[in-house]
Write a structure and sequence with these properties.
The complex is a heterodimer. Chain A is α/β, with parallel strands linked by helices. Chain A has 13 helices and 12 strands. Chain A has 2 domains: 132 residues, Aspartate Aminotransferase, domain 1 (Alpha-Beta Complex); 238 residues, Aspartate Aminotransferase, domain 2 (3-Layer(aba) Sandwich), CATH 3.40.640.10. A 7-stranded mixed sheet of chain A has the order 2-8-7-6-5-3-4, with helices on both faces. A 3-stranded antiparallel sheet of chain A has the order 9-12-11. Chain A has a two-stranded parallel sheet with strand order 1-10. Chain B has 2 domains: 46 residues, Arc Repressor Mutant, subunit A (Orthogonal Bundle), CATH 1.10.10; 86 residues, Lrp/AsnC effector binding domain/regulation of amino acid metabolism (RAM) domain (Alpha-Beta Plaits), CATH 3.30.70.920. Chain B is 34% helix and 20% strand. In chain B, β5 and β6 form a beta hairpin. By secondary structure, chain B is of the alpha+beta class. The chains are: A alpha/beta, B alpha+beta. At the A-B interface, α2 and α11 of A face α2 of B.
């Protein structure tokens, strides 16, 4: 193989904003794990199910019938109608398919579009942390200023009205959060959302509510912040097919909100992405219309594995609150005397179990690790055994 | 209408989930089952005992791909037409048939024939002998059509030689 010649740096010609974005803390870990064999990975933030067959079949059929074109920028009307029916049936949320719903390339695109549609240079966005790693960088890329609001383990990593108030300035435009939460598994119930809603209304803020894990709520029913009186018009609800329907690779998400916001989001989407892939959209229609039974079976299976895994973590001395949703456990490793980084790295090298150090999701994640239990029961049991041995050795 | 107490409903739901888990993997340990179902090992053990007593759980089995061994049996599905008997219908002839140890399964069918009989043997010859010497001569049997199974693709919900492993990347944010 011919060796590539060293090229002169072009650093001075690159975007300062992008160059200065902090690198993803997950990247380094990914590179470490990728080189090793026999690793049990609890680091995977996606379902361990393959997309249900009827959904895959709908895509195959779409291809056979020659559905290979662009769609309307907003997404197929039939899919928007299916989304509207689904949100009404599941969460009693009412959105008009014509102008209040936009189909995007995954929930990730919807987050980017929402921020770009509402932010002017210097606008501040409260990012409730620990959080999915892309919110802060997306705010920066959209010209805004991310303001981290660190939640407290003592409140189960749930934000309080007082925490919000403390970070609000005249420049605060919006707040972005995700419940059920990646990485903590926390979810917000009616009575926990109500005081936040008060603050948001009083300060006239917008909310970007990432509810991609909504269906994966285990002991209660998911409540959307958009369902509170006066909140629909100030909430951009973001969700998609990835987690509940095991459709991560299909890249179908959606945003719902005030028609004027959705219109601006569609404008960006039209200039940058055009539309989500038509065959994925057709599969999503099948999932929303005929995939609910299988979705509920998957949710039950996550719930069972949550019960098993969290009990196991607590038994081996890694204190873990009961996550109410998503498929992550977020145990504390403070009792071991190691930082989350040290713990994760030594666990990987000594016992070949991969987890993600909690601080990559925000400062309040220091001393915690994120473990995804979207993996087989056998792997969960084996991982728990290895972690027990590891923790024992540290004592 | 009589309402079911929530205790009773919870127990039914626990039972349903337990049965599905055991059907999927009857070797799950009591501690794993208790963990998955947020219960105790004692409660699960008692429930399993009760399900066995009630003959809801009949047997614990393994799904085996015999083709990967040198002991692969020959399996045939036989469509059997019979004359039902007054008073006992198909039950009597069905029981005559299912008592043979080489018979794996017997189902009463709607449609073109009456009983579907699954027979296992070491060789095709062995099955042919069974049909000729034991099944066909039975009084009520009018005719038989034997289909040999050539390849098993899926059995008991398990796809044989399913090449789909975990294709996910090792770390995903």
């Amino acid at each position: 193989m011919s060796k590539r010649l060293a090229m002169p740096s072009v650093q001075h010609r690159l975007s300062r904003v992008v160059s200065e974005l902090p690198p993803s803390g997950i990247r380094r870990f990914f590179d470490l794990v990728s080189t090793m064999d026999g690793v049990i990975s609890l680091g995977v933030g996606e379902p361990d199910f393959v997309t249900p067959w009827n959904v895959r079949d709908a895509c195959v059929e779409a291809l056979e019938q020659g559905y290979t074109t662009y769609t309307s920028n907003s997404g197929l009307l039939e899919l928007r109608e299916a989304v509207a029916e689904y949100l009404w049936g599941q969460f009693q949320l009412k959105y008009e398919p014509e102008d209040e719903i936009l189909i995007t390339v995954g929930g990730s695109e919807a987050i980017d579009l929402a921020l770009r549609a509402i932010l002017n240079p210097g606008d501040e966005v409260l990012v409730i942390q620990p959080a999915y790693i892309s919110y802060g960088p997306c705010v920066t890329l959209a010209g805004g200023v991310p303001v981290a609001v660190d939640t407290d383990p003592r409140t189960g990593f749930k934000p309080t009205a007082e925490q919000l108030e403390r970070h609000i300035t005249p420049r605060t435009k919006a707040i972005i959060f995700c419940f059920p939460n990646n990485p903590t598994g926390a979810s917000l119930r009616q009575h926990e959302l109500a005081p936040l809603v008060d603050v948001i209304r009083r300060h006239d803020l917008l909310v970007i509510s990432d509810e991609i894990y909504a269906e994966l709520t285990y002991d209660d029913k998911h409540v959307s912040i958009a369902s509170f009186p006066g909140m629909k018009e100030r909430t951009i609800l973001i969700s998609g097919m990835s987690k509940a329907f095991a459709m991560t690779g299909w890249r179908i998400g959606y945003a719902c909100g005030h028609p004027e916001i959705i219109e601006l989001m569609r404008k960006i989407h039209q200039y940058t992405m055009l539309c989500a892939p038509i065959m994925s959209q057709m599969a999503a229609i099948e999932a929303l219309r005929n995939g609910l039974d299988e979705m509920r079976e998957m949710v039950l299976s996550y719930k069972q594995r949550r019960n098993l895994f969290v009990k196991g973590l607590n038994e081996i001395g890694l204190a873990c609150h009961q996550p109410e949703g998503a498929f992550y456990a977020f145990p504390s490793v403070k009792a071991t005397g190691l930082s989350s980084d040290e713990f994760a790295e030594r666990l990987l090298f000594d016992c070949k179990v991969a987890v993600v150090p909690g601080h990559v999701f925000g400062n309040s994640g220091h001393g915690y690790i994120r473990c995804s239990y979207a993996t087989s029961v056998q792997q969960i049991n084996e991982a728990l055994e290895r972690m027990a041995r590891f923790v024992q050795k540290l004592r | 209408m009589e309402m079911e107490s929530s205790d009773k409903r919870d127990k039914k739901e626990l039972e349903r989930q337990l049965l599905h888990l055991l059907e999927d993997n009857s070797r799950y340990s009591l501690s794993t089952l208790a963990g998955l179902l947020s219960s105790t090992e004692n409660e699960i053990a008692a429930l399993i005992q009760e399900l066995e007593n009630r003959k809801v759980i009949l047997k614990y089995t393994a799904t085996i791909n015999w083709n990967k061994t040198d002991g692969a049996p020959v399996t045939a599905m036989i469509d059997v037409k019979v004359t039902p008997k007054k008073g006992v219908g198909f039950d009597e002839i069905a029981s005559r048939i299912y008592r043979y140890p080489e018979v794996e399964a017997v189902y009463l069918m709607s449609g073109a024939y009456d009983l579907s009989v699954v027979v296992k043997g070491k060789t095709m010859h062995e099955i042919a002998e069974f049909v000729a010497k034991k099944l066909s001569p039975l009084d009520s049997v009018i005719s038989t059509t034997t289909h040999f199974i050539l390849k098993k693709y899926k059995h008991d919900g398990v796809i044989f030689d399913d090449g789909t492993g975990d294709r996910r990347m090792v770390i995903v944010p």
